[in-house]
Design brief:
This protein has 16 helices and twelve strands. By secondary structure, the chain is α/β, with parallel strands linked by helices.
Length: 474
């Protein structure tokens, strides 16, 4: 029997309520954590092709337990208030889980960005930014946007430039937005951050032998099979890093135009190069192709790890019983509905929740924000010092042993950390620690059967501590 569909925001609230009952916190405090503090809806006109188009847009600040608030801006025809509220709430919990000191926020502009020229998109982005500045919904100490679905570093550069024009005397203006080009106060490693974080999270989950044994799997990633739905920024980097650094075999990929499947494996680099050249994955050599109307069936193929990396609600009450993957790694925001999760858990699946797994983006955004506030590149002060100390140590060892390293070996061992090395190291540390915290909560509470409830509990308890430290609640 088909169950009634729930809104995205209601699904998030249901997850919250399920976890909240285990926290023993006062109901008023729970309600404050749960509610969206500020919802801004705006309509503004933009000249398009000689006419005027009225654009609908949103910015939601879910929680002010920490400042500034933080969250991406998505451009999509599917944007609505319910979706933006849900995503803002998830950002609050996500930041708490990975110990990033932001409240949650999210923005959305209801357009299909691929229908507009860069010139028109720039107009829309700059006007949207102006509206946010006017309402005090953006600023390095207020609310810091970032890229999301349909946006990227180009749009973030437009936002920063507009903010600087309107706030010319603000010394930390570059910190008003993250995800900017490296040449314009961005940070190395930001583009790959969410996908790399997904990889680190999956790798950590597979490191626990007892958890994998319950799934009928060996620990470790080498030789595991993966299907990815969505070959955008997150899906593509997840695939490349999982293949190159984890030894995972990608056997299926779903995209807008259809899906490809090959149980012997798909070289993700070759697939991306093919799509770039042909503008489609249809016809990729050696793979079975599923037409556009059947593309969602790729979710139902057998594999060890299923990575939904597109939009929300793709795993729902209508297809949850057909999911064969042992592990669902939620790279997208909200890909699994509340009702679908109950079905998956009954069937013994392990779900690595979105609010943890795709937190790599906000983690590295935090690093970028810190860089902007400090006005200094990471590694600038210590790189040469560390390199010189390593070289001195190598010389001492060589003198003691009478053996010498080849130049390329010496250069590799003595090399000081670049900015991207420090970013990746910080991200890896964050994802490992956060997973261990979540899993520990799950293990401590025998009644808990899933990581998501444990993750929500972790977030709720951390946010509640912040509110109580404010003196608002006893």
């Amino acid at each position: 029997m088909t169950q009634p569909k729930q809104s995205f925001f209601q699904s998030v609230q249901n997850y919250f309520d399920k976890a909240a009952q285990y926290t023993k916190l006062e109901q008023g405090l729970l309600e404050q954590i749960k509610v969206c503090n500020a919802v801004y809806q705006v309509h503004f006109p933009v000249k398009v092709n000689g006419g005027v188009k009225v654009i609908e847009a949103y910015r939601v600040q879910h929680s002010h337990h920490r400042a500034p608030t933080k969250g991406g801006i998505r451009y999509s025809n599917h944007v609505n208030q319910d979706e933006v509220m849900a995503l803002a709430a998830l950002m609050s919990y996500k930041c708490a889980i990975v110990d990033v000191p932001f409240g949650g926020a999210k923005g959305g502009v209801k357009i299909n960005p691929w229908e507009y020229s860069p010139e028109v998109l720039e107009k829309i982005t700059r006007r949207y930014t102006t509206e946010l500045v006017r309402r005090n919904f953006i600023g390095p100490a207020i609310d810091v946007p970032a890229p999301d679905y349909g946006t990227g570093e180009r749009e973030m550069a437009w936002i920063m430039d507009t903010y600087r024009v309107l706030k010319g005397d603000e010394i930390d203006a570059a910190g008003c937005v993250t995800g900017k080009p490296v040449s314009q106060n961005g940070i190395r490693g930001r583009t790959e951050a969410t996908g790399r974080g997904v990889f680190y999270g999956i790798r950590e989950a597979f490191s626990f032998k007892e958890d994998m044994k319950r799934l009928g799997l060996e620990s470790g990633l080498e030789g595991k099979t993966m299907i990815i739905q969505g070959l955008g920024n997150v899906g593509s980097y997840t695939g490349m890093i999982s293949q190159d650094e984890g030894g995972i075999k990608i056997i299926g990929v779903g995209e807008v135009e259809g899906a490809v499947y090959n149980p012997k494996g798909i070289d993700i680099h070759a697939l991306m190069a093919y799509r770039k050249e042909h503008k489609t994955i249809e016809g990729f050599p050696g793979a079975q192709f599923l037409k556009k109307e059947d593309r969602e069936k790729i979710l139902e193929f057998e594999c060890d790890i299923l990575v939904p990396a597109a939009l929300e609600n793709v795993i729902n009450s209508e297809n949850a019983h057909l999911i064969k993957a042992k592990v669902i790694a939620e790279a997208a925001n909200g890909p699994t509905t509340f009702l679908a999760e109950q079905e998956l858990l009954k069937r013994g699946k392990l779900i690595i929740p979105d609010m943890y797994l795709n937190a790599g983006g906000v983690t590295v955004s935090y690093f970028e924000w810190l860089k902007n506030l400090s006005h200094m590149r990471f590694g600038r002060m210590e790189k040469r010092f560390d390199q010189q100390r390593s070289e001195d140590l190598i010389k001492t060892v060589e003198q003691m042993t009478g053996k010498s390293l080849r130049k390329e070996e010496r250069d590799q061992v003595a090399r000081g950390a670049e900015e991207i090395d420090l970013v990746r190291s910080g991200l890896e540390e964050t994802m490992i620690n956060a997973y261990q915290q979540i899993r520990e909560i799950m293990v401590q509470h025998n009644e808990l059967q899933d990581l998501r409830t444990a993750a929500f509990m972790n977030a709720i308890l951390k946010i509640s501590n912040d509110y109580q430290n404010m003196g608002i609640f006893p």
